[in-house]
Amino acid sequence: MLEVKGLGKRYDDHWVLQKISLSVREGEFFSLLGPSGCGKTTLLRLLAGFESLSEGEIWQDGGRIDLLPPHRRQFNTVFQKYALFPHLNVWENVAFGLRMKRVPPLELSQRVSEILALMQMDGFSKRNISTLSGGQQQRVALARALINRPRVLLLDEPLSALDLRLRRQMQVELLSLQRRLGHTFIFVTHDQEEALTLSDRIAVMNAGVIEQIGTPQEIYESPRSQFVAEFIGSMNFFEGCVQDIRDEEVILSSGASKRALLVRSPKGGIRRLPQLSSRAFARIMVRPEKLRVLKTQPSAESNFLEGMLKEVLYQGPTTRFLVGSKEGVQTYIVDQPNTAATIKKIFVPGDRVFISWLPEDGILMETHGA
Ligand SMILES: Nc1ncnc2c1ncn2[C@@H]1O[C@H](COP(=O)(O)OP(=O)(O)OP(=O)(O)O)[C@@H](O)[C@H]1O
Ligand SMILES: [Mg+2]
Description:
By secondary structure, the chain is of the alpha+beta class. Helices cover about 25% and strands about 35% of the residues.
């Protein structure tokens, strides 16, 4: 439905966006995720038409739209800085779009009440915008955009000012509203968990370029670069040299002890092994929840390394173990669920332990240099 082709944006001679190409389907919840300053807001402003492109094109429904003014595009925007009308109260801010469209009074009043209730702002109708907290203003901004039922809604960190509990509630409301009304959402966030939970697909951005576009599972389970791997959650790295390549398996020889580490492509096709030449340098990446800490050396089927337990961090649902490598240069992160068996205090910092993982849980990536 929406297609961005080779988009670039330059301020003076500084490129803030380069080679941005993506397409968004009708009814899709599409997120832009990346660190502060990577160009998320700039991209939204270009889509909405508040800035002009330096390079590339934007298409919608088969027609080019990047030369159209904002009001001729079918987008509504929730700005990172709310942009509410300071002289109107909450009710009038939300009702504004419907008044412009001359919606009959009864319907208008029903729709405003409904959306304010959804945003948990029903007690605030008469309040002046300047008397609201940041999170309350953010919810009014969201209500004001949602009430217009635009075909495409551009949302720039619309939940960032809310506390965690309210944020989780609003995430669910937003998702069910989007599913119910079939809106297309382009949603900016720098919160990895939020992007994973809400999105149909995510574009991970870094310093003005898109590093990867994929479903949450693809982004998390088969990141294509080290940046994506580390930006979405934590990651452990094991470096080595390719020793043997078989059908669906690769063996690396790792560390001073030349320990053999096996990687196998998982069943179900969530990822495939990259094409590597023998003797190539490569890296195995393993998520913390896929590692185990053990007191004794595990069975031959798993990969394992010996280390020293540095910290045991209780985190509620899980316990995080920080394990120093035998050579002492690296620290590995292991997250284990807190079941009755694991929360017994059997591990103490200073213990000699083994970390272990299944060959299918390693993500293999070629590296360059020795
Ligand atoms: N009008 C402008 N003139 C010059 N540089 C700009 C302008 N607007 C944005 N930039 C620069 O473009 C880069 C991207 O900014 P942008 O606001 O898109 O980042 P962002 O990903 O939305 O970050 P955040 O998560 O902090 O909101 C930044 O380095 C910013 O300084
Ligand atoms: Mg921004």
